[in-house]
Amino acid sequence: MLAIVKQLRSASYGNAIVMLGLTTLFWGGNTVAGRMAVGEVSPFVVVFLRWLIVSILVVPMMLRRIRAEWPILRPAMPRMALMAVFGYIGFNSLFYIAATSTTAVNLGIIQGSIPILVLIGSIFVFGTGVRILQVFGILLTLSGVALVAAHGDIHQLLALSVNPGDGVMLIACVLYSGYTLALRNRPQVPGLVFFAVLSAVSVLASLPGLFAEMSAGAAQWPTLKGGLIVLYIAVFPSYIAQIFFMRGVELIGPARAGVFINLVPIFAAILAVSILGEPFEWHHGTALVLVLGGIWLSERKASVAPPT
User: What does the alpha-carbon distance between residue 83 and residue 85 come to, in Å, rounded to a whole number?
Assistant: First the structure.
């Protein structure tokens, strides 16, 4: 029996579709967890506990590798600290703040705009060439995000009235896009070593937000349900998903693996409707088509574009 289990585990770990499918499922589940955390644990407490648990899981395991790579890591620590602040702490904090005033469906669909925001950033930061279909894809995706943020109400769009939670989530996506762009020049060390150091830095970077929340009397340490939610967030979307995604990239390459990220808003919507009972209205479906269609157009053209 044990041999069968080991064989199944080995087969799964060698299957990129399984690895990347589970990765995006866990990331989609993070939107549901963010909504479920409301009233059970406060946003900055979630962020602090999330990275504390992740660092406890991964740093001891990678400590020897970190020491070996330290000559490469040390000069890059200031830059890595900024990456942790923007990509891990900034994004996560705003994500859980947004979850207090918008739906998991909206969180997932708006999060789907990150690939397009990265493309826009790469145009301005790295001078990446852009073609007409990519421009069209950008406009489609941003139209989908605007539709969700306005809850399908054309009058809100014309009046530039946006649900605060959706606006906060969009800012979070901009921060994570900046982190993604910074990955282009990250220290050339194994991915898990880089992730371990960044998770440890994130624990320290999360302390100012935690202390501010405590000083304001807004900190809420987790209830039993909140503790289980934090544990899910730390173990599945933060830890296991990172390992699975790295494995997927190893198996089929970053370009093909990146396409799977488009499943995150789909899983988020399915889980939000099935677990939380959130309504899935016409503007959600339309926005999902616009966002995914825009990403497809931009990636399709980007895949054949010459390197810059």
Answer: 5
Q: Comparing C-alpha atoms, which of 59, 57, 48, 18 is closest to residue 197?
A: 59
| 284 within 8 A of 47, measured Cβ to Cβ | no
Q: Is 190 helix (H, G, I), strand (E, B) or coil?
A: coil
Q: Which helix (H) or strand (E) holds 83?
A: helix 77-83
Q: What is the pLDDT of residues 267-285, one digit of tens each?
A: 888 888 888 887 777 666 7
* HSE, side-chain direction, 13 A CA sphere, residue 204: 9
Beta strands in 201-269 (DSSP E): none
Low-confidence ranges of the chain (pLDDT < 70): 1-14, 130, 146-162, 254-259, 282-284, 295, 298-308
- For residue 39, give the 3-state DSSP assignment: coil
Cα–Cα dist 231/224, whole Å: 11
Q: For CA atoms 13, 56, 230, 95, give the dihedral sign.
A: negative
Q: Which amino acid is at 217?
A: G
Q: What is the pTM of this model?
A: 0.81
Residue 134 near residue 173 (C-beta atoms within 8 A): no
Q: Which residues of 74-100 are buried (b: 16+ CB within 10 A; e: fewer)?
A: eebeeebebbbbbbbbbbbbbbbbbbb
pLDDT in tens, 166-215: 889 989 999 988 888 888 888 989 888 999 999 999 999 999 999 999 99
Which residue shows structure tokens 């054949």? 304
Number of residues in the chain = 308
Return the ∠ at Cα 149 (arms to 145 and 154), rounded to 5°: 100
- What is the Cα–Cα distance from 212 to 210, expressed in whole angstroms? 5
